[in-house]
Design brief:
Two copies of one chain form a homodimer.
Chain A (H helix, E strand, L loop, with lengths): L21 H8 L3 H8 L7 H14 L5 H8 L4 E7 L4 H16 L3 E7 L4 H14 L3 E5 L5 H7 L6 E4 L8 E5 L1 H14 L5 E5 L5 H16 L7 E3 L4 H14 L4 E4 L2 H14 L8 E3 L16 E3 L2 H18 L5 E4 L2 E3 L9
Parallel strand pairs in A: 1-2, 1-3, 3-4, 4-5, 5-11, 6-7, 6-8, 8-9
Antiparallel strand pairs in A: 10-12
Helix pairs in contact in A: 1-2, 1-3, 2-3, 5-12, 6-7, 8-9, 10-11
Chain B binds a DNA duplex (30 and 30 nucleotides) through helix 2 and helix 4.
Chain lengths: 347, 347
DNA sequence: CCCTTAATTGTTAGCGCTAACAACATTGCT
DNA sequence: AGCAATGTTGTTAGCGCTAACAATTAAGGG
């Protein structure tokens, strides 16, 4: 009765023989297809002998379960959507890697949607894309302060883990403690005897940018130092360069805590051109510890974040939500400072 | 007769109301479910009036097609798997972005599998993962010479586009013309009057590493210059630094073409420490033009590759394979040189 | 040795969609 | 008007899988 026609007109790559189905395995093992289903789903009530025969049949036929069919009936795709911006940056890219690793280890597929510019619309687009795909959950890798709100408005009915969020809202979060990182940087400078410590911040509508600035401020206030030397950059080396040119003539600070390594690179370049020596005249601390930071001129003292670990934690959190239905929460990864040649006591 | 139970025990996020199906839309529009299917698939033979009513019903109910059900019957998942290594690097990350953009624009989903170390096994693992998912095609973003062979052995029955391959084998390819890029770099140095031009290459078992070295060699031979000054690095800034320390004492070349920007950064650092001035004593050219290259000390002359365009071309090629069943082939993106302060005529 | 309970296996229905075909309505032509 | 050709809509079956339930077998207790 079975009518096995090749419906698709695409023939170049679809071999004539169809892939084996549960039914084929069942026939070979001399059991019903349901028993095979039980074996591949690890149901307890299958006798050892039967399980063995079925597993043998599966191996012989090279059977692989059809994901679409399973998804249709279980309403689970075993796919996680990663909604990301800035994927070409070191941090987000590595976080994605962490998510991917943890996901694949747990038997999940990872789908991505990159957004070019952060806006409620672009986020909604990407989320819709994921809903069309039927993802089981979404990891939002969009470290922007508007992300939470934008996602909240969508009323998604899948769990969402937001990277960089501390999990106050409806969504779970996973983050590196940015404030702590900033404090580590500033305290390192204070220990070396600096009194005038400036900050080149990231954009303040980016979560990390705001948090690092806040950590810088807290550390200064706690030490009784002025927190008035702050300029906002845009994360790029170019903005660090531009700001560095201004700072080089201003002579306001003996140390600068820069919001990320790339802006620090631009700053170092501007200082170099202007004859401001680092660290003799001004000490510089970055943030991220991207692999190149140790080869800047001079090698950069910076704050290391373990992005892959962050990604893995995200996925762990997602799995908890998915499998135990656990409530919202947050997991925090601790950064640490890496001291190199760009910092020294003031002259 | 329909028994609409919620089978899954996971309730936290699965709202009570089920998503609307074709049937629901059909009922609302007063047509059969098949007519609705025709509308969403843009079949020609639907009257304007009917189409209008159906579209209204779709909008009112917020209907979205169930991907799993469609995949089950069409045997197409509309998903492309991107098999990638080195995703944390600027180039591959941006290529991925290009693929993602082109894919989403074409209504495809993008799934990723990252491999930590390149080996036949890890590639096979990732490919199996994709086959389990039922991807329609695979984009291999693993710029290693062994990739083609490893993929070939798997006898995949989906189209494969290999990034960096010129499409000689069974698979289609998309590449930036690495040899041309290298020639542009070397010819720039020759034009400035350099006679002794060394090369710090990437690993020779990486496609790009080998191609760039070959381009360097060709340009030198064509100009009648010696091609004996070559050292192999591992792409990292650290390896560039180590090699730079040796070159600084050797004084063998007046110009160095470095396989990528990161190694160039390390080289610049080593030269800076050793008192070798760039470009006065030695000119340096990099490869990639990552965004930071213009802020190195000194700003780096380098070869720009348009990675996003490369990614888009990959996806275009994939779509051609998928929809027209076109044969294998290759598309080539041209690099161009960006001249900055790290190169000058020899003293 | 029969009856209850538990363990194991089989049978049936249906997830939501598209392909194939059947049925019906419309148009144009002789 | 009558008939073919075309355009439009409906009906049916089945993609490969899992859930629910039915059926069978094995084990234990009086």
């Amino acid at each position: 009765m079975r009518c096995r026609l090749a419906h698709n007109s695409f023939m170049a790559y679809s071999s004539e023989r169809r892939l084996p189905r549960l039914e084929d395995v069942a026939e070979r093992a001399g059991v019903s297809h349901q028993t095979v289903s039980r074996v591949i789903n690890n149901h307890p009530n299958v006798s050892k002998a039967t399980r063995g025969r079925v597993e043998a049949a599966i191996a012989e036929l090279g059977y692989r379960r059809n994901t679409a069919a399973r998804s249709l009936v279980t309403r689970r795709s075993h796919t996680i959507g990663v909604l990301a911006s800035e994927l070409s940056q070191y941090g987000p890219a590595n976080t994605l890697l962490g998510v991917e690793q943890a996901a694949r280890d747990a038997g999940y597929f990872v789908s991505i949607a990159a957004i070019r510019e952060v806006s409620a619309e672009s986020i909604a687009d990407a989320a819709r894309h994921f809903m069309d795909q039927g993802v089981d959950g979404i990891v939002a890798l969009v470290p922007h302060t508007g992300t939470l709100q934008a996602l909240d408005n969508l009323n998604l009915d899948v769990p969402v883990v937001v990277v960089g969020s501390s999990g106050e809202g409806r969504f779970s979060g996973a983050m590196v403690d940015q404030k702590l990182g900033a404090r580590l940087a500033v305290e390192h400078l204070i220990e070396q005897g600096h009194k005038r410590i400036g900050h080149i911040s990231g954009p303040q509508d980016w979560i990390d940018g705001a948090e690092r600035a806040e950590g810088w401020r807290e550390a200064l206030v706690q030490a009784g130092l002025a927190d008035d030397l702050i300029v906002e950059g845009d994360w790029s080396a170019g903005s660090g360069y531009g700001i560095g040119q201004q700072l080089a003539v201003a002579h306001a600070a003996t140390a600068v805590f820069v919001g990320n390594d790339q802006m620090a690179l631009g700053l170092l370049r501007a200082f170099g051109e202007a004859g401001v020596r680092v660290p003799q005249d001004v000490s510089v601390v970055g943030f991220d510890d991207q692999p190149e930071a140790g080869y800047f001129t001079p090698p950069l003292t910076t704050v290391r974040q373990d992005f892959e670990e962050l990604g893995r934690r995200c996925m762990d959190m997602m799995l908890a939500l998915l499998e135990d239905g656990a409530g919202a929460g947050a997991t925090v990864v601790e950064p640490r400072i890496v001291v190199r040649a760009s910092t020294a006591p003031p002259a």
